[in-house]
Amino acid sequence: MGRPPRHDEDALLDAAVALAAAHGPGGVTVAAVARAAGAPSGSLYHRFPSASALLAALWLRTLERFQEGFLDALRRSPEHAARHVVAWSRAHPEEALVLLYGSAGFGEPGWPAEARDRLQADNARIADVLGADERLILAVVDVPYAIVRRHLHATGTIPATAEDLAAEAAAALLPG
């Protein structure tokens, strides 16, 4: 029986999230993540065969963590979904900054095929629930993300009152 890994995938991706939040996607290199995690670069290449695989794993883990709660909230109501976007981002500001860059910011066209397929499936899950309703998308995606982006870029924190504003905006956009 082998010994447990000293640098597991989540710890490496946590270091990558911190680098992305501080320096943008360009700051997430194999060498920088290895330094930040205190791991040899071989540990990264053991888990991520290329820099693009590392960037894909960073984006997908972040997206899927967000989407899990978002889908549950959206099934309850648009107001819950709008509130979730802001609350999750307030609780996870570094990961929210990652999402604000978008998958293209993390080199999505160059990702391994299986990562691009996973992204397509993740996006399809959301599209299936949202449909083509532009007013719903505005209420639960565009307005809450505008609130998140403004606060994170200006101060690095999101006030608790922002959740209420997002829910109120969703209710106003989707009356009855």
Low-confidence stretches: none
User: What value does the average pLDDT take?
Assistant: 94
CATH architecture: Orthogonal Bundle
CATH fold-level label: Tetracycline Repressor, domain 2
- Our Rg estimate from Cα atoms comes to 17 Å
Please indicate the count of domains: 1
Sheet having the most strands: none
- What is the end-to-end distance? 60 Å
Structural class of the secondary elements?
A: mainly alpha
Query: What is the H/E order?
Result: HHHHHHHHH
Shape: globular
Task: Describe the structure concisely for a colleague.
Keywords: DNA-binding, Transcription, Transcription regulation. The chain has 176 residues and is mostly helical.
Describe this structure as you would to a colleague.
The chain is mostly helical and 176 residues long. 77% of the residues lie in helices and 0% in strands. Helix 1 packs across helix 2 and helix 1 packs across helix 6 (93-105).
Indicate the topology:
Layout (H helix, E strand, L loop, with lengths): L8 H15 L6 H8 L3 H7 L3 H26 L1 H14 L1 H13 L7 H18 L3 H21 L6 H13 L3
Helix pairs in contact: 1-2, 1-4, 1-6, 2-3, 4-5, 4-6, 4-7, 5-6, 5-8, 5-9, 6-8, 8-9
Tag the structure with descriptive keywords.
HTH-type_TetR-like_transc_reg; 176 residues; HTH_TetR; 0% strand; 9 helices; mainly alpha
